[in-house]
Amino acid sequence: MADELSVACQSLLRGCVRSGAMPLEQPPGKESRVTRYLISFDDGAMTFPQEELPDVAAASHAVVQEAKDAGVWVFGGGLHSQEQVSVVSTHGTVTDGPSPEGKAYIGGFSVVDVASRDEALRWATKIAVACRCAQEVREFVPGSTT
Asked: Which CATH number fits domain 2-21+34-139: 2.40.50.1020, 3.40.50.2000, 3.30.70.1060, 1.20.1250.20?
């Protein structure tokens, strides 16, 4: 059931993105003093009962829409499970399947463009409540998102 739930949640997140994610470029007239933050959760972190999926879906869609309306949403989505990972080495060798080192894998993410870390943490809190799982917040290196 956990795998079915994970697939359902990831599908939900992809749907949120397909419903109109903002482009990666800065919109005309948008202040350039903002910073981009990655808000993410680990694969398998969404562990609520399947019958609660419609409520989680509605809450997640509402937060995404709120972020879009506020002009901070850049991009986001859910990712397939780690079983569908491919690793490409520096020599170009492709290995399918999860890394044998047992790394943690991102299950889903959002990128927001905000004025401060505190604001990013406020959005992460809203996402955590909506998705019912903890979120990690990381700042992009300045100049690396152009």
From this structure: 3.30.70.1060
